[in-house]
Amino acid sequence: MIYHSVNDLLRLSEENNIALWKVIMKADMEERQVTEEESFEQMRQMYRAMKQADTEYNKELKSASGLAGGDGEKLHLYNAAGRNLAGEYIGLVMEKAVKMGESNACMKRIVAAPTAGACGVIPAVFLAYEEYCHIFEDRMVEAMYITAGIGAVIAENASIAGASGGCQAEIGSASAMAAAGLAYLQGGSNETVVNAMAFALKNMLGLACDPVCGLVEVPCIKRNSAGAVNAVTSAQMALAGVKSAISPDEVIDTMRRIGEVMPKCLKETSEGGLAATHAAEDIRKHLENNSN
Ligand code: SF4
Fold first, then answer.
1. Is the minimum distance from the CB of 167 to ligand 1 under 6 angstroms?
2. In which domain, by residue range, is 97 found?
3. How many domains does the chain have?
4. Looking at the domain assignment, is residue 223 inside a domain?
5. How far is ligand 1, taken at its centre, from the CA of residue 183, in Å?
6. What value does the mean pLDDT of the chain take?
7. Confidence at residue 83, expressed as pLDDT on a 0 to 100 scale
8. Residue 40 is part of a domain; what is its CATH number?
9. What is the pLDDT of residues 100-149, one digit of tens each?
10. In the predicted model, what is the mean pLDDT of residues 25-34?
């Protein structure tokens, strides 16, 4: 790997006088020994797989537990009724994030970027952007490289797994990746892109991983929506010229340190947080009774 930090990414972009996304593409070419075209086409296929998963959302489907399904459609109907409080783009982002999280819970094909639990964040931000702003697909693919590069740095220096870092590592990382990509799509400079990433991750620090009954459904699906909207607010702050007081690499390191001291009960064990509520216990009993 030719980069190991956000600083490396910025330095390589500046030293070689190439766009940030190209630094990440070149690293992919080197690592997988592929040509520029092969790398770009593979990233395009990844993006198209997200699009296909979004298109194939089925509002009738329910997860095996019965806890997930149909909420994406509710958001769609609310948006369609013209009652959207958050504006057209954010309304669409929320809808797509929940739909993708539900598709995952219903065992449909999704792109686990960075994980299956957080699979709704990046597609929601990106697909809604493409739909809303009518952007060429090549530019979306370029932004996908930005998300991939940020994700790789977080994975190397902290974690992208709820079991080791809590939900900050899953939804938080996804949000940071999406924020960086969105800032790029809106024409942000490299500095803007990494500030967006830093804001998004900062806003998610300390988030517990507490899936009810060990299922990636409650609270995961709706957290995708929160993570996606957080990406948009973070990108907008950075694009407006607001700067993070803490450097992006230090924010990532902070997430690692928080993950290290987070108790085991908040790291996907379903022994704490929302998973330890009376409501969660009732759901567990209900599921047990149904399986007997
Ligand atoms: S709560 Fe845990 S399982 Fe659910 S999305 Fe967050 S990290 Fe993943």
1. yes
2. 6-291
3. 1
4. yes
5. 25
6. 97
7. 87
8. 1.10.4100
9. 999 999 999 999 999 999 999 999 999 999 999 999 999 999 999 999 99
10. 98
